[in-house]
Amino acid sequence: MSFELEGLETRPAQVWGSVRLVPLVRDEPVPHLRLHRKAYEEPVSVVDVGDGTAYVSFVPHAFVATWNDGDQTPAASYGTRLLERDTAVASPRMPVRFTRRMARKAGKDRLRFLPLHLVVEGYLALHFGGPEILWEEWSRRAVTRGLSPRCEESYLGLRVHGLEDALRIFEIHPGQCGVLVYVADALAGAFVTPHPDDYRALHATLVEDLFGELIYTYGLLGAPAGDLSAGIDGAGITSLHDLRAAAARRREEWAAFHDEVMAGDLFDEDGSRQTVQHLHGFELARFLPSFGLRKENHIGETVTGADGRIAYLKTYRLSDSQVRRGHLLTRLAAHEWRLDATAAALGITEAALALRLERAGFGHLLRQDVLDHYRAQARRGTPA
Amino acid sequence: MTRLERLRLQENAREAGAAAVAADLTAMPLTRLASYVLALPLDDRAARRAELTGALRAAGRRVAGAARGSWGRVAAVLDDSHSSIGSGQKRRRPLAVALAAHYLLEALAKEYAPLWTSGRTDELLVYPFGPTPLGERIIDALETRPDRLVIVSDGFDNAPPGLAADVLRIWRTRLDPGHRLAPGQRVLIAHLNPVYDADDFDVRRLSPGVPTAGIRDAEDLPTLVELARFAERQVGLAGLRAHLDDRTARFLGERA
């Protein structure tokens, strides 16, 4: 499985402190796909699509808004959705109660992204599918009572040192539709939209995005991102024409270097992909990495057009503990969620597997009596 | 009312229908007038194009004074990228300086080629937008074979970073037709930086070989360029003194 970021050109990075932002520019916006107009800060009555034909709108994952269908409480969209042109978002939704923590100093009506680690857990949940009913119950419980204390934290972009300043200072290219965020030259995530206006509307919201522990730590360490620009050697340049050619060559070298070396691990060839929704030729899919330990693992959502080109992309880099948990779930899913088969494949006893699930925060996947049985066994120290 | 007060109350007065507050734009100082123009919405600027352009040109000619047309071929690289929005306290100041410098250079030059970083050609409708491809713009400017090149930019070259420094270095060491003759024969390149870097107590330079100065008002541009010429040995100490004496006399003459 491999994607191509066709139609998107890599432009030179802008660096601020330890944050490097690499812009992606399109020649032409992807036709017939736009951000849902609720996502714009200023109320937009009509989103301009040029030729006025029918178009599909998308709502990004964890987007909080008051969807006006009689119910004025704000709700978060659970997973990216594709919709017919600007219609109201139906389920799945998750009602949100705003605590002081979540309320930023922004306008009352301002739409924002859900700033809880719920987003990431919910993301993983979405990706794994599994027995639907279990995930619903889990997510309901998670909203009311919070997650198990053993889950690791995700950090709001605001707390990643230097990210807010970098986003504010960044000069948006005309035609820019995407960006890749690096902290200390570790890829934190990629974000691509179909249209430059959509990108402009969402650029600042990257600061409300979630980042894992690795990125947060790199931000704290504060080492300035290195100068990756190769200078132009004066040798062989005898005219302004040569100079221009050298500058163009340098631009191409940077783009190639970035795409292959820096962003090369964004899409995992051994990973998997699951199509979620089809609408008017656009396909919404979620992709998972192979969860190889000690590797870069990114999860994300894509919307691809009929020609296979990526129109919308949002990725998240998993932290090490998330990778371990994902690995466990992958093994379970591969054996159809049967404890005995999975335990045999992993080379441990069923009881050990059950406890491992519980330690990883997935104890609720098991029936209570089953889990108690294994816990008692472990306490007694007798084998299954 | 002072001139600045009149200028500030222009728009409100227009709405309230009070005609007595009308400021005489042709008497406004150049940089202040440029700030005023940039504060107007684009539609207003387009609607009042003749009036605003006339006032800016008149102000430019007034600052140029007797030196009008004496600068020969001039190329200017002007920064209207997103960072020219400057600080929250004094908005769009770097862009106002660039716009004012544009009109002043137009008055001073015999042949003038302006190049904005965004690629725009209609200077009345500028606003801070886009990245800063200074390297490429400098190459474009040098291709017009100017006698003098003035760069008005905050020096944050980012498309791609570092290209401007390389271009300037290679130009001055290899490509400048005058560089083998004598330093005084080279194309005069001056970098004027409207933004002050509080960390270093200095302005950001594009290249160590190019004279760089901070500029706050575009009215100081001729003096700063003269200082750059002195640094490049294109004019001697006597010539520099004469220029400064002349500016002093004009300053005192205006005030007196």
Kindly describe this structure.
Chain A: It holds the Pfam family ARPP-2. Chain A: This is ARG and Rhodanese-Phosphatase-superfamily-associated domain-containing protein. Chain A: Residues 4-279 form the ARG and Rhodanese-Phosphatase-superfamily-associated domain. The complex is a heterodimer of chains A (384) and B (256). Chain A has 384 residues and is an alpha+beta fold. Chain A has a domain at 335-380. Chain A is built from 10 helices and 18 strands. Chain A has helices at 118-128, 132-145, 163-169, 196-203, 213-221, 240-262, 320-334, 339-346, 350-359, 368-380; strands at 8-10, 14-16, 19-26, 33-35, 56-59, 63-65, 75-77, 81-84, 93-95, 112-113, 155-156, 176-183, 186-192, 210-211, 272-279, 282-288, 298-304, 310-317. In chain A, strands 1, 2, 3, 12, 13, 15, 16, 17 and 18 form a 9-stranded antiparallel sheet that branches. A 4-stranded antiparallel sheet of chain A has the order 9-7-6-10, with no helix packed on it. The longest helix of chain A is centred in the middle third of the chain and has 23 residues, at 240-262. Chain A is globular, with a radius of gyration of 23 Å. In chain A, 37% of the residues are buried. Chain B has 256 residues and is of the alpha/beta class. Chain B has a single domain (28-255), classed as Rossmann fold (3-Layer(aba) Sandwich), CATH 3.40.50. Chain B has a 5-stranded parallel sheet, sandwiched between helices. In chain B, strand 1 (73-78), helix 5 and strand 2 (111-116) form a beta-alpha-beta unit. The longest helix of chain B has 19 residues, at 237-255. Chain B is globular. In chain B, 44% of the residues are buried. The chains are: A alpha+beta (384), B alpha/beta (256). The interface between A and B is medium-sized, with 27 and 27 residues.
